[in-house]
Every structure is written in C-alpha cells, then in structure tokens.
C-alpha cells in the first residue's frame, strides 16, 4: 500500500506505533519498524538525554529500518531538557520525531535544520491546522476513543477524521481506536493515509511490559476505560482499576477544587510498577477503548501482516463486491 505517509517516512505499511511511556522502548520500536511499519521510542521514558542516546543506539542495533522518537511536551513541574533530547535524536541519526502535547513550535527550527520529519499528535482540527502552519510534515489525529490524553473536545474519530480531511493539506494518520484491518480501511476511507496504534501494540509478544499488562488488555472490554483528571483539563483515558476508582472518588469529593496533589499517589511515578512489575492496581495507566477489540497477543509481524492482508481482502473483496455493475 502506498500513501503519502509511507512515502514521507520511507516505510512499507501505513502503520505507526505511537509513543508510549514505559512501553516504547527499543525492542518494540525495532519490531514495528522491522515489520514494515514505523516504530517509536518514547523519549522522556529514558529520563535523561544520555539514556535516550543509548536507547537509540540499541534500536539502531536491532533494525536498519527508519524509526521515530516521541517527544511529549506536557505541563510538568520542571521542564525536561528538550534541546538536549533533540541533540541526542539528531546525533543518533533518527530523522523522524513524533511530537505530542503542547505546541512544538519553539523546537521546530532545530528539528527542521537537522532534516527531521515531524509528525505532531493532536486531538482537534484547530490544533492540526496549527501544526500544519508551523511546518509539521504530518499529523496524527487522536480521537476521543484513544488511550492516553484525548483532549477536552470529546470528538470521536468518525467525525474528527473527515473534518481533518476537509481542512488539512498535509497528510494525517488516524489515531485512537485502531486495532485491525477494519480500522485501517475505515480510516483510509475517511481521508487518513495510515493509522497510529497504541494500546493494540502493547498486547504483542515483543512489547517489553509485564505479562499482566497484556492479559489485562485482552480481558478488558470497550466498557472498561475511564476518564480521569478532567477537572484539571488534563483528561486521560485509563483502564479501570482500584487506583482509578480512588481518583474518581476524590474527584467527586473535591469537585472544581481538585488539585493534582490530591491524586499524586495514584498518578505520579506509577508506570514502572505497572509496566515492569505488573502491579495492576498501582496507579492509573493509559489504555484505549480499543481494548474491546483486542483478544490475542500476536508477534508484531503477525499483527502487521494480518492487518495488511485483511485490508486487501476488505478493499478488493468485500467493498469491491458491493459495487453494482
Ligand atoms: C500506556 C500508554 C502510554 C502512552 N504514553 C504516551 C506518551 O508518553 N506520549 C504520547 O505522546 N502518547 C502516549 N500515549 C498515546 C499513544 O501514543 C497513542 O496516541 C494512543 O494510544 C492511541 O490510541 P489507542 O490506544 O486507542 O491506539 C500512550 C498510550 C498508552 C496506551
């Protein structure tokens, strides 16, 4: 399949693995890139630019295909050294960056001067247009159903993708709720030129997380995610668990007075415990509604090959067969 996204990134299949805190390590990024998609190392998970440089080197050992690094610009108490992270990306020979969170405008000249292609992940048409205006090469349009931060507009992809297609000139991929060939073909029909998957890639053999996390995703239905931190305008879609029930109880009690410090225990520094130790109630962790469509743990290559094969069957078989002569 050839789209503006496969051409832009020099990849075989229009399938991207989005940055994921404590999941997007070299093993997963390389597996996705080796399968013909675009894998992504999550920059801030590494903790320092030096450690990111080492992780990029590890990924370069595991694949000779292109891969990306995610840089997330979220509100934080002390700003990470983004300039140094970008230096590590450039020095490591990575030429694709997935930005997310706040507007990456400040960092665009540094990245563009180094020949980096930037795909910005955002949750609205207005933010997509802003990304286009500041020189991003593509956008990842993240619908309300997505795992992680869906923004505050609550527009699902069935509306958001055609709206983005109506307004954007640069290519975009559909993000949020993408699991299989049906997702890919539907997203292409709505104007996207590929898909970005998060939750689906966690439930793969190569994802470097505890088996409990994969089992939880397979077990979950589309009814099992919750939105937390809405009163802070930092909404996150997470898998329901004991910690999430506590957060929601605190949110109900505090109402508009909620502060991040009220729920710090349930959200701060919990990812290593969940992703590495498999302590599934240790805190809130991002997960998409798409969990309801995930019921196996294939290898990344099996997953990507299956999506591409079945997409062809849908397009050339099912859809073509519906056309009246
Ligand atoms: C466990 C987890 C951690 C994530 N961490 C990040 C992150 O650090 N930075 C980021 O930009 N997006 C992050 N995301 C969002 C994904 O990159 C992707 O946009 C999202 O998962 C797409 O929705 P889906 O889960 O329905 O596929 C995370 C998602 C999950 C499930």
UniProtKB/TrEMBL annotation:
Sorted UniProt keywords: Flavoprotein, FMN, Oxidoreductase
Keyword Cell division: no
MF (Gene Ontology): nitronate monooxygenase activity
InterPro entries with a match to the protein in the record: Aldolase_TIM, NMO
Protein's name in the database: Enoyl-[acyl-carrier-protein] reductase
